[in-house]
Amino acid sequence: MMPNLEKLLCWKAGCSEELPVRFGGSWAETYTKTVQRAALPPYVDGLFVQQEGFHRPSDFTPLMNAIEDKTGIPIALEGVFKWVAFLASKRDARVPVPNQYFGVFQDGTLKYRGIELRRRDTTTWVRKIQLAALEVLARANTPQEFANRVPDVTALVERAKRELRTGRVPLDELIVRQRLSRTLDEYVSPSPAARAALQLQERGRQFAPGQSMEFLFTRSGSGVHAWELEEALNPERLDAKRYSRLLDRAMRTVLDPCKPYLVPERLL
Predict the structure, then answer these.
(1) Superfamily grouping for domain 171-237
(2) How far apart are CA 258 and CA 126, in angstroms?
(3) Domain limits, CATH 3.40.1820.20, in the chain
(4) Regarding predicted confidence, which is higher, 216 or 73?
(5) 1.10.3470, 1.10.287, 3.90.1600, 3.30.230: which CATH number matches 1-114?
(6) CB-CB contact of 226 with 200 (8 Å)
(7) What are the b/e assignments for 87-100, b being 16+ CB within 10 Å?
(8) What pLDDT, in 10s, does the model give residues 18-66?
């Protein structure tokens, strides 16, 4: 019997009444090479499918065959999620975004798109802590287990901030990478990347729009220290509070979609 596609397919961008985190092992991600032919926006390269009682990869085979027969698009199953969390749209917090999510497959493998871990301008330090937080949460199998692991994430973040304040984080893990959006003389209020470029321009360097700058945030002067400067930065000048805010933002990404499962005292 041919599966009912309208019943089985659930593209989360159109399910605003759903909670942005789903448990139960019935999520699967399927990928296509020609997503436009599947009537999906061009930035979405997969489908998220939910069906009660579907837990094993083989459970999705009839549906996948039906999709291929219906669309002519080759489709492959990447895995079955144990749970998956979708980030809220900035325009409407009630609507999850289909290309910004994180989750864990049944074999424990993490999958994430559109979060700080995937961004080039995220410092190595923030990326490492966010990944460690996801690894802690990945061990949860139920909403209650998820909520019970939030204090472990909080402790992880506080430990990381303590290491930052005491100078135990290598400076190269705190490098920020940002691109110049225009020529330096076109900036009315120079961005951090532009201020780092100006420091190097004083030493004979030339820059053009689109170039990537590496720098550290500092508590004095221009607020940045270009990484390529010959003078090493005194660690005491590092702006630890700003780096802590960057980490807090990454942790909100991880925990905000899960608020329905959390009690207030467990939130960051």
Answers:
(1) B family DNA polymerase, thumb domain, alpha/beta motif (3.40.1820.20)
(2) 20
(3) 171-237
(4) 216
(5) 3.90.1600
(6) yes
(7) bbeeeeeebbbbeb
(8) 444 555 555 566 544 333 333 445 555 677 777 778 888 888 888 888 8
C-alpha atoms less than 13 angstroms from C-alpha of 13 in its C-beta half-sphere: 13
Among candidate residues 254, 265, 263, the one with its CA nearest the CA of residue 83: 254
**Residues, the chain:** 268
pTM of the model as a whole: 0.82
User: What is residue 254's predicted lDDT score, i.e. its pLDDT?
Assistant: 92
Q: Which amino acid is at 248?
A: D
SS3 at position 46: strand
Of the candidates 109, 125, 102, 90, the residue with the CA atom closest to the CA atom of residue 248: 125
